[in-house]
């Protein structure tokens, strides 16, 4: 055998060459063949459009044919329904080449297709973790029969799972599927660039190191084209977008749905052909927009991160980012949508509407230039997973015996560093509050559990994330999407004008009982609102911001427009005392306020602020970069306090009211729920680093 390609089944080789017309495989596809054929767990990493799907599917089809796999044998798991919809025709085409089939199963798939798949299961099934959980809970699905023959699982965009509670849920569901068959399914993860690929594979696999392999392919030495501009407002951003790159297809990312609506509306006022995509638009609205954008030219689509994860919208010329995402990996993923055609480069234009966004954009570009990417780590202490999995087992099986619990959850709990005593304490609490009822050596659903999670509400148990209480919006019979109910009326009780899908709509009527609002097109200025909070910046990004401020040198990671250079120069003047590797105390004598500029990140500053408050410092608040205090504090007093805090680094104490933001948090013992929140707010390394860094003397401003 001279090449890995020749190890594929002859039928797969034939169709790659003759049916697909490929002259060669991409590097990742070539390198993935042997470890997948050997049955190892594999992490496949490459930039966007690097051929990751084919790198997993072709060797699996080869195994399927060679080893005569029968029935449903491959699961392809994705974080987004839209991505599954996008991939299904492509994967079905590959399967059909060797006489196999691929099905699609998620919340938008109707009963008819599901019944057909239950009667005649496909060889491959594209789905989500929540849909797999629903199969276990459904009385219409024999999960053991349907899933008992699964031989391999592909997890696409695994980084999106692993950094979120959905990842813990997915691992628990996959372990339950493994328990249905004699052998353990092979696990393959597909990812874009991440900072800790070996850790990510270990998290997914948990097999011995010799039974798993990481295959990462990078995109060569061609640096991306990164540009940072200062525009000061969304309206100005719209004018810049309208005036640039005529004839090109532009994908614009905003990090909130409200900002998407605001920008899209402004672009349409400027007569720019504009499409919109975000999670609160109806499925049909999103599909129509994404299809129209894929087929059009000289247009813009404005999106949240929903279009970050590999959904095909055709060849892109430009990616534009309004302000900056909190993570370097998001920028890499987003600009990876460009530069696919010969003679083009990956590119991203940052349009910054405020000063922090300008500094953050430049800092993120500098980190990209240095080759740094965040590690992906699961949220610590997912004790609410224990609640969800125990409820799911009880609802699926009717009751669970002591000897069967925690069963398949044991390995995931150990991976998440949850102790057996804590797992037992969660079950005991569920029994105490009558969510569960003990009967001999078994537990079953209790009266409170039936009210909260019983058959009428069982779908709430299929996920580990909270959903917003949104109200549907319709224009006639056409569903437009969903909005926060509070946006439908003004403060004085009048019906409002809202923005949805990049258009303004007058609210005509609201049926609060059914949760539906009816609207009509409007020429008035509208508004939009959804709940949600921003993500705290990491210490690495904040210290990169400090490095940008602490020098007069032109940044290397991005080209700055004249406006951006002028604004950066002004900010450097405002922060003239900043030094790299130093924290700084600044006194505002006019307002009797002092600010400790730590550049330590939002979570670390919350902990440091709590430590200062405990030492009777009048803390007024904290953010990603600093902590504000009522003066006078003074340099010597603060310096001594930092020495004292270094002996016992502080941690932020979460408010009990925040428990409601943790799904199933109300069913956890309060002390355990608070321990989950505290662990997720903690950044001890950044706290210690800020306490260790020299403090510069007070500067008058």
UniProtKB/TrEMBL annotation:
GO molecular function: ATP binding; ATP hydrolysis activity; DNA binding; helicase activity
Keywords, in A-Z order: ATP-binding, Helicase, Hydrolase, Nucleotide-binding
SMART domains: DEXDc, HELICc
Gene3D superfamilies listed in its UniProt record: P-loop containing nucleotide triphosphate hydrolases
Domain Helicase C-terminal: from-to ranges: 233-384
Keyword Methyltransferase: no
Domain Helicase ATP-binding: 33-212
Name the UniProt record assigns to this protein: DNA helicase
Organism the protein comes from: Paraconexibacter sp. AEG42_29
């Amino acid at each position: 055998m001279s090449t890995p390609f020749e190890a594929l089944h002859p039928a797969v080789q034939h169709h790659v060459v003759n049916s697909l017309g490929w002259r060669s495989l991409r590097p990742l596809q070539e390198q993935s063949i042997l470890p997948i054929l050997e049955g190892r767990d594999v992490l496949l990493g490459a930039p966007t459009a690097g051929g990751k799907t084919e790198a997993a599917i072709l060797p699996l089809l080869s195994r399927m044919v060679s080893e005569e796999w029968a029935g449903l044998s491959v699961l392809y798991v994705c974080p987004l329904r839209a991505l599954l919809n996008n991939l299904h025709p492509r994967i079905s085409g590959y399967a059909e080449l060797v006489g196999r089939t691929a099905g699609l199963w998620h919340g938008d798939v109707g009963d008819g297709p599901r019944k057909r798949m239950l009667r005649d299961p496909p060889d491959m099934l594209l789905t989500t973790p929540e849909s797999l959980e629903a199969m276990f809970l459904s009385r219409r699905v024999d999960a053991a029969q349907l899933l008992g023959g699964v031989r391999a699982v592909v997890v696409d965009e695994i980084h999106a799972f692993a950094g979120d509670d959905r990842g813990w849920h997915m691992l628990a569901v996959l372990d339950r599927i493994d328990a249905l068959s004699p052998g353990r399914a092979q696990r393959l993860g597909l990812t874009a660039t991440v900072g800790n690929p070996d850790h990510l594979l270990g998290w997914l696999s948990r097999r011995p190191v010799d039974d798993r392999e990481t295959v990462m392919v990078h995109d060569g030495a061609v640096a991306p084209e990164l540009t940072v501009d200062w525009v000061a407002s969304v309206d100005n951003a719209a004018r810049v977008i309208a005036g640039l790159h005529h004839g090109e297809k532009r994908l614009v990312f905003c990090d909130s749905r409200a900002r998407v609506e605001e920008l899209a509306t402004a672009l349409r006022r400027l007569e720019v052909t504009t499409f919109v995509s975000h999670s609160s638009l109806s499925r049909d609205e999103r599909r129509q927009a994404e299809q129209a954008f894929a087929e059009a030219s000289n247009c813009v689509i404005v999106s949240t991160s929903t279009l970050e994860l590999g959904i095909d919208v055709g060849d892109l010329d430009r990616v534009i980012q309004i302000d900056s995402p909190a993570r370097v990996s998001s920028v890499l993923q987003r600009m990876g949508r460009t530069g696919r055609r010969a003679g083009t480069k990956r590119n991203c234009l940052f349009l910054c509407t405020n000063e922090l966004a300008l500094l953050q954009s430049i800092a993120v570009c500098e980190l990209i230039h240095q080759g740094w990417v965040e590690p992906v780590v699961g949220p610590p202490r997912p004790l609410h997973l224990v609640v969800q999995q125990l409820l799911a087992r009880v609802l699926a099986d009717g009751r669970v015996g002591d000897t069967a619990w925690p069963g398949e959850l044991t390995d995931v709990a150990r991976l998440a560093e949850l102790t057996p005593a804590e797992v037992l304490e969660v079950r005991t609490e569920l029994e105490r509050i009558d969510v569960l009822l003990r009967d001999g050596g078994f537990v079953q659903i209790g009266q409170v559990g039936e009210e909260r999670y019983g058959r009428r509400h069982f779908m709430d148990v299929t996920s580990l994330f909270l959903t917003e209480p949104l109200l549907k919006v319709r224009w006639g019979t056409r569903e437009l999407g969903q909005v926060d109910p509070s946006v439908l009326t003004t403060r004085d009780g009048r019906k409002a004008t809202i923005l949805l899908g990049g258009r303004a709509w007058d609210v005509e009527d609201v049926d609060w009982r059914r949760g539906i609002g009816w609207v009509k097109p409007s020429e008035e200025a509208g508004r939009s609102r959804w709940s949600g909070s921003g993500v705290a910046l990491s210490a690495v990004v904040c210290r990169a911001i400090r490095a940008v401020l602490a020098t007069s040198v032109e940044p290397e990671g991005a080209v700055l427009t004249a406006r951006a250079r002028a604004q950066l120069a002004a900010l450097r003047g405002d922060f003239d005392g900043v030094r790299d590797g130093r924290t700084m105390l600044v006194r505002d004598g006019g307002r009797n306020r002092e600010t400790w500029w730590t550049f330590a990140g939002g979570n670390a500053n919350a902990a440091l602020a709590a430590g200062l408050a405990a030492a009777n410092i009048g803390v007024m608040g904290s953010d990603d970069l600093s902590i504000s205090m009522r003066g006078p504090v003074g340099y010597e007093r603060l310096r001594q306090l930092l020495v004292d805090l270094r002996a016992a680094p502080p941690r932020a104490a979460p408010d009990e009211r925040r428990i409601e933001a943790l799904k199933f948090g109300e069913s956890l013992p309060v002390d355990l729920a608070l321990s989950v929140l505290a662990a997720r707010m903690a950044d001890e390394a950044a706290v210690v680093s800020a306490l260790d860094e020299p403090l510069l003397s007070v500067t008058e401003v």
